[in-house]
Amino acid sequence: LFGAAVVALLMLSAFAASAAVASTASVVTLNEYSNGHTVTVNPGQHVTLVLHSTYWSIAALTTSRPLTQVGSAVYLPRLRSTKGGCVAGQGCGTVTVHYLASAPRVAHLHASRTSCGEALRCTAALSNWTVTIRVR
């Protein structure tokens, strides 16, 4: 169990991308490091959420404005044969959701998980993810 916790922490620290706080790029990518941040985007910008565990469950938007989800969540497991390997039950892989900013307002994206690896229950700090999206 202790070893699984270390592996989970090492996996999380391996994602070196920083949180997007404001952007004029056409696509804003959010990940674990975006948790707790507010992101400002313009109408017409795309927002991509990529969380690095297939154990994440991304909550549906409560309204279609100011963000519209484009397609369904895509769960892409990392295969054991992939370099670096993946032990069964670790949740290796990603879950990705795409959104389109459409109207000036505020939206909240939420994700949650209960497992952080094989037989490893997440702590409160690692089980919830939230970002506020402000569309100008």
Outline the structure in words:
The protein has 136 residues and is mostly beta strands. The protein contains two helices and eight strands; from the N terminus they run H-E-E-E-E-E-E-E-H-E. It has helices at 2-13, 124-127; strands spanning 27-30, 38-41, 46-51, 57-58, 67-77, 93-101, 106-112, 128-135. Strands 1-3-6-5 form a four-stranded mixed β-sheet, with no helix packed on it. The longest helix is centred in the N-terminal third of the chain and has 12 residues, at 2-13. It is elongated and about 45 Å long. It starts with a helix and ends with a strand. Residues 1-22 have low confidence and may be disordered.
Write the layout of secondary structure elements.
Layout: H1 2-13, E1 27-30, E2 38-41, E3 46-51, E4 57-58, E5 67-77, E6 93-101, E7 106-112, H2 124-127, E8 128-135
Parallel strand pairs: 1-3, 2-8
Antiparallel strand pairs: 3-6, 4-7, 5-6, 7-8
